[in-house]
Amino acid sequence: MISKIILRDQVRSHLLDQMTNGLLEPGKTINLAALARKLDVSVTPIREALTQLQQSKLIKAIPNRGFIIAELNYLEAKDLYELVADLEVLALE
User: Could you count the other beta carbons within 10 Å of the beta carbon of residue 48?
Assistant: First the structure.
């Protein structure tokens, strides 16, 4: 169980980094199978990470389309980046 949690968090971090660096653009669909191959993990930790990001409103789950990078306005983006920064600090403590 521990390694599963670590994988989920690693995938979430990877996706956040890609969004922050502009490699995953708003409106882009995430291909679960391709991401699983790229990261050499199963689809399960990817789905778990995407679900966490969906709860943070960074990603939207669209029925019959999959997960899509959310399009945020300036205030939403600012609030979310502050939240992620706070969570990362708490995780380090």
Answer: 17
